[in-house]
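Here is a typical protein record:
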Amino acid sequence: MTERMGVLSSDGRCLQPSPLAARAMLRPAARRLAAVGIGFAGGWAVLYGALMPFGLGLTLGMAEDCFAPCAAGAALGLLLHGLGALSLRSLCQLCALGAAVAARWLLPQRFVPAALAGCGTLTGMALCFALGSSGADLLLYSAADALLAAGIGFGLRKFAPERPGMGTLLVGAAVAAALGSVRWGWFSPGVLACAAAELALCCRAQKLAALSGSAVLGAALCAADPALAPAAAGLGCATAAAVVLAPGRRVETLAAYAGGCVSGVLCVQPPGNAFGLLFSACGGMAVVCLLPGGWLAPVAEPSQSGENAPAPARSAAASTRLEAVAQSLSSLAETVNAVYEGLPRRREGFRWVIDNVHDTLCFNCGRRETCWKQEYTATMAGMEALRPLLEQNGSVEAAQLPGELSRCIHPAALCAAAGRSFALYRSRKEARIHSEAMRTALTEQYSAVAEALGVLSEQLGRPGDPEPYKSSRVAEFFTGLGAPPQECAVTLDDLGRTHAAVTLPRTRFTPQELAALAGEVGHICRRTLEVPQVLSCKGMTTLLFSERPALRAVFGAASAAARGEVSGDAVQQFCSPTAAQMILCDGMGTGRPAAVDGNLAAELTARLLKAGFTAELAARLVNVALALKSEDESGATLDLISVDLYTGTARLFKAGAAPGFLVHGGRVRAVGEATLPMGVLGGVNGQSRVVHLTAGDYAVLVSDGLLVDGAGWVAKQVELSAAAGDAPEKLAETLVQTARIRAQKTGRPDDITAAVLRLEKSG
């Protein structure tokens, strides 16, 4: 069933906002709002009654879009923690926050200048006050805050808080310390929050995360309020019990966690004092019980999740199977050719016609001994004299019999037997030629498909380095949109480029949704991605994301028919995920028959290139298609250029095509030599060449009709237009119109086509 990401009207207009679009608009605001809350917790938190490192540390370590909101939240937390009283410690902290924010604005992506500015300001101001009447305590505490803040900031820069690990633990410690310093009678929100977080991790079967979180959050609670040490010990025992006894099973995990918590608290705290801590812990467990079941679904550990190991294994298995299929097809083609070559050849020349006339007419004739033994030489000479008559007319009349056969007593029967034998001989010869063509086409197809499968097998064998964390983040993103992916893989290729493949149940996307998806997935992968390529097959939709290349292609084309409105030339221009493709095919002749051949060749070549075939393999398959299209002679030239938009490497392939023109560094040169078109021979006689292009360069493909007056003026016009920076469409129109005027003067009309590609910097 096809799903939609939004509600559309019959004319394609969006009637309701897409969830993806709403998420894309709200996500930056949600991130900044969360940064404000985390910063507030960092500014509020006080360790051991004197240290306040989290506000400055979080400001130094948060991402570029979040450090300013985090600093604002930290400043608010500092002010409210003292109930509006501005102490010297708070003043130093506020000045340090301002210095760190200014340094990060002036020198983005640089940690050391921001750390020196923030920590230096904090220590410097404390030193100034210490030299006055504040004493050395302020300087010592501020120096300790500066060192801890630098460590926290470095840890967050090294391990982003969005990624499970140290960054998440540091943020959790700040929140736990802030909540741990708040007590309302028996109730402690810090204990409640820590219990809820640890129990949720246990229910999701994230054992290592639960144990490490229990240790760090417990330490933060103890540092915020030493009276919470029994609670921290109880929560640690509860987490260990849940992880060991019943990880991933919600009810059993809750029971094990509750039992461990009670046992741990009672072991270190008298029962009378333990009720308040247990009450807060029970509040955290109640919060987890109220969460939706989908939020607590077990998640396997990264080492067992299969995101890292099975994907390369599946790629290797698929590569091996494709290679086996390729070898089988190649072996089949070789076997068919070997068997054909080993078959005995029947000598079905004109001598067979003579033998057949003898066997069907002369064998029972009374003059057989005389004609075929006594006068054998004369009879054979007469039979050979019939050959030109039969080849010209297909039959022979009695009056046309040569003198050597005038003694035949059955002249009419001889003429009829000779006509029938020659017709049978000719049909056998045509069948043999057709069988030879079919065998050649079959083995050529097998060989081409085998080579194509070999190329795909090699590509699958090099799937790139997997990015399991990014893969899981992208999978979570699509799950949040209501479309859980069947498969999701983010990889780095050999050149360090990011690629992502997401397979979903069959879903339709609008261009706006695809663009929004590229932005969101690119944000997760920290790369700028192109709009994904969409592949749909058997109820599944696969989105292929690729990193935005350094170059982009601008196309232009123009054409003029020799007679009427139908041109035998066909042009295909498109961009695959990594390359720009431009194809020009010129059908033999003019008019509709040539248009059929040209369009067939261009369309088939484009489809094969999009499927991953190389130019040479595509040309071989198209050659077979043209050869078997009809009994009439068919043919078309193939002119192809494929430009890698990441490196600028251009691959040209020509089969019977007219010379093309390349403009590199402002200078033009012609490329290509004369060869036979496709569909004429059993194989393809093509030429390949590799060149390097950069931004501002042009590639021009033309049909032979445009070169009716030579190639010199074309090269000059291309160079002048390139120097003027003309758009590809304008250059193509100029070439076609000028060539049409020149062709009218020479009186040799032909289809005229020009296809132009210009490379520009992507951005």
In short: The longest strand covers residues 551-560. The two ends are 37 Å apart (CA to CA).
